[in-house]
Amino acid sequence: MASGDVSIRRVSEENLPVGHVVTASGRVSGVHQVGTVNPDLSPFATDELIQLDEALIEATRRTRVRFNVLVGDLGADPAAGADAALVATPEAEHSVLIAVSPNQHAIEVRYGRGVAHKVDDRIAQLGITAATGSFRDGDLIDGLVAAVRVMSAAITGPSS
pTM of the prediction? Predict the structure, then answer.
């Protein structure tokens, strides 16, 4: 057990952005309007989000499989976290989920039963392999875009 002085930093409410408050416990809690990105909280630049969005749209249109990406903490068991996240995605039965937990250095790919005839573990592994190099270089968006594109190409095959 460690010992030492406890440092408490007081936050002045008048300096907080609109939609933020200091809770009774001293924690700062903030919200932003639904459907808008809070630029102060997004780890990605707008052009990176556009690049990812375009890759997701193209892959979904090309394969008729809905591609989804989740970046965040997947819990103590990333595989179980990805399983739970797939169920919560739109059109889960007809979806592919690429779930990344950067702090855990984990990437998981899950797919619904409705697309199991198009997507299998081999294609999921191709996506993971495509993302890994960029992730090692610290480029999360490039890795996600690479995973989406490689998986889409593998689903449609060389004739598309």
Answer: 0.74
Q: 144 in a domain, yes or no?
A: yes
Inter-residue contact 155 to 123 (CB < 8 Å): yes
C-beta atoms surrounding 127 within 10 Å? 25
Angle CA(46)–CA(47)–CA(48) in degrees, nearest 5? Answer: 90
The rounded distance, in Å, linking the Cα atoms of 98 and 93 is 14
Task: Quick: pLDDT tens for 69-92.
Answer: 999 899 999 999 999 999 988 789
User: Is residue 3 one of the residues assigned to a domain?
Assistant: no
For the chain, what is the largest distance between any 2 Cα atoms, rounded to a whole number of angstroms? 66
Look at the chain and report how many structural domains it folds into.
Answer: 1
Q: What is the DSSP string of 71-116?
A: ES---SSHHHHHHHHHHHSTTGGGEEEEEEEGGGTEEEEEE-GGGT
CATH of the domain at 105: 3.10.310.50
Range of the domain at 50: 46-156
